[in-house]
């Protein structure tokens, strides 16, 4: 190999190592946020708690995740993504061990709150690094790849978690995750190198940091993107991360292992969807078009389940695959969000909008738990009507958000139209 080839290979190897490390942390984050869906019936039976408490147990993660987004954005812009990720790794380890040891709903909920805060940086901090280290036209692709690989965590929270829970108990799985995060944290300390532009912003005062948050909030179209963020991720998680498992058990009668295997399908399909959507902004020459298509079709799939209620085996499998793939338009929403802000506000702007994403999950999961408890429960089984209401409410929320989003400023589409000149 020539000297020139050696020089080219070294940055490529460093970029691959960086991506693998950051994506590995995101895999663990995704596992933790989606892990309640498969084990929810077991926790409910073990601790004798109603649907509303299961909803709170799951949504507590997302409440904490959303609550720390603004200070996280300040920290990323001020101290750099690496320091934030290392500090969060310690919180994740402690919270996973606390969840494994929890014996009451309150203890589990407290652990989930800490877990949400600890994993809060493993999407936005890597995206901030990608935004500063790679060309802008590669951002959506990198975001899609990062999310697609991270979705392996969602996959692990389905059939593998069900198998581990059946064999060793669900608590053991969280001890293993704590150990894995320790290993990833060590890799981050060794592998992650921030470019000079991401050095700590020591000259920026706290008052200036707060003014930066205000500037991000005043950015045109932020409100529309915030609402879209609230509905986008929550539409996938409300099924794959919470009520999909109970729905498959209570309505169809599937066992722990069977529901884990079935929830594996939307997780795998979403990996493919994330890869495809990662290129879609360049294919369409717009952020708004692929997001709107994904949102309205996803809403249609949820509405179908709300209207029909129970599908046959074949249509159910097709629905699970289609839902997982179509609902994977999140990378384009993040790329659109990032494009709204100047470089100095990227960290704060994206965490502001990511607060909407996680806040949306908190709201929808809390409301859905209350909605299910409206109906009478027989033998710990929630009736089909309760699930139909949950899916109908989420479909309606997504339609409203997408309709508002259609009027958002589209920097990519606007620049393409300006470059093409008047028609």
What is the topology?
Layout: H1 3-34, H2 36-47, H3 51-67, H4 69-79, H5 81-101, H6 105-118, H7 124-133, H8 139-156, H9 159-168, H10 170-191, H11 206-217, H12 222-250, H13 256-284, H14 288-308, H15 313-326, H16 330-339, H17 346-372, H18 384-405, H19 411-420
Brief summary:
The chain is an all-alpha fold and 423 residues long. It has helices spanning 3-34, 36-47, 51-67, 69-79, 81-101, 105-118, 124-133, 139-156, 159-168, 170-191, 206-217, 222-250, 256-284, 288-308, 313-326, 330-339, 346-372, 384-405, 411-420.
Structure notes:
The protein has 423 residues and is mainly α. It has one domain (8-194, 201-420): Growth Hormone, Chain: A (Up-down Bundle). Helices cover 81% and strands 0% of the residues. It has 19 helices and no strands. The longest helix has 32 residues, at 3-34. It starts with a helix and ends with a helix. Mean pLDDT is 84; it is low at 1-10.
